[in-house]
Amino acid sequence: MGNTSKKLAAKCTLLTKEEQKYVAATFRAASKNSERIREDDLIVSGKVDAVLLEKFWGPQIDPRLTQYLTNFLFGSGQQKTATVDFNRFAELYVYNVRGTVDERMMVTYNCLGMDYNEEVELPYQLLKEYCESIASTYIKMVKTSSSKRVRVWMEKGFRASASHVQALGEAVTATIGDLESPQHHCTAAQLSKWLQSNILLKQLAELVYVNLYGINKRGGDESPTPMPPAAPSLLPIPDGLDAMPDYPAFIDISHIVWINSHLPQKYQHKWRFLFSSHIHGESFSTMAGRIIEQGPSVLIIEDSSGHIFGGFAASAWAFGPNFTGTDDSFLFTAAPKMRVYPATNYNDHYQYINHHTKTLPNGLLMGGQFHFGGIWVNADPFGEGSSAESCSTYRGYRRLSKDPTFHIRSLEVWGVGDKPLTEKEQEERDVSVLDTNPEAKAILDMAGRTRHSEGIREPPPL
Known about the structure:
By secondary structure, the protein is of the alpha+beta class. It has helices at residues 3-10, 17-31, 39-42, 63-74, 86-98, 101-111, 124-143, 148-155, 162-174, 188-197, 199-212, 253-261, 277-280, 284-291, 423-436, 438-453, and strands at 36-38, 83-85, 122-123, 185-186, 237-239, 270-276, 297-303, 308-313, 330-335, 339-342, 352-354, 363-369, 372-378, 384-386, 405-416.
């Protein structure tokens, strides 16, 4: 790094030492080694064609976001300036990546062309477009990424259509409350609460700005365009798709990001392909055989009307007369709108599966009661299902399918997280741990001696 970059970085105490290196290098490239960046060198906004916006940040940014960044960096209206210094440039990164709620409030107001004022309300429609621009920029970065996980999803037909990207942005905004009518506005108090609770928006913004600022750029890369870091973390590794030459994808990259972001974090890193009605056939027995004892999973259904919905089963599927699962379970819709319905804890009717029984319903159920489930997939004939008008198991629930009963056009099940170990694999791993960890073995031996000395008899082997 040159002396210019070091001097610039030294002026900003918000950045860590490692960040100073990357942000200063990005600033130096965009400012052409001067102490200020001209707007035309970074992002061009205004009355020119979107293609011509592609300056330093152009190739990987939604044109709408260029205007919002212009408002923050250079101001708007009569307060607009022609250049920006390093501190303001660094603030945009820091506040979006790890800012306090007040700092993120200030960024939001400034990006929308307003001064942060608790008395000023923000139009819901404007907030929606702001979230859409962040989601769109994130998806652009995903699509241009060279990571293997992205390539596999894309090569198997998972696209990122504009309508679904827009739906992702709308879904992020909708969590602010019941403000969907265009005339509604958002108060500062509502915005503050929303920014504190909306984890997905924070993750999307963080990934966008880490990429724009070239953080963790590849070593030796001197190109002025910021390089993406490692694979975007909201997109899981697809496991098991390589063996499927003609995979019939019916969901979108945006859907995967939406569903995956609501899973418990320990399952977000990998999706394991288990079943597809197009590949394995329309057979309940086949589906059950492929998903039983495979750990937590996501069920995704497309009905004949094009509605896409499903649920997260937090426990492994297992035949039986009782409901299983935990309150980590949720139901969701992916099209035409993206919504998630978490557990209410009113009852524990999270998941049920049965087949070839005479006294109990045969099929798969998630939420609600028999014959009135949030999702019911019939065992025989396979391909028919229903979604009840109400379901007390899940909060805010609304019927998932277009009609109360539906015909299944597509059905998939994905295991999430690492594949659970079998009993034999668990035993072998335990033995291996003991062999390599004398302390653990000594603790177990001590426990055994204690039990023996206290007269505790071990149960006979089964």
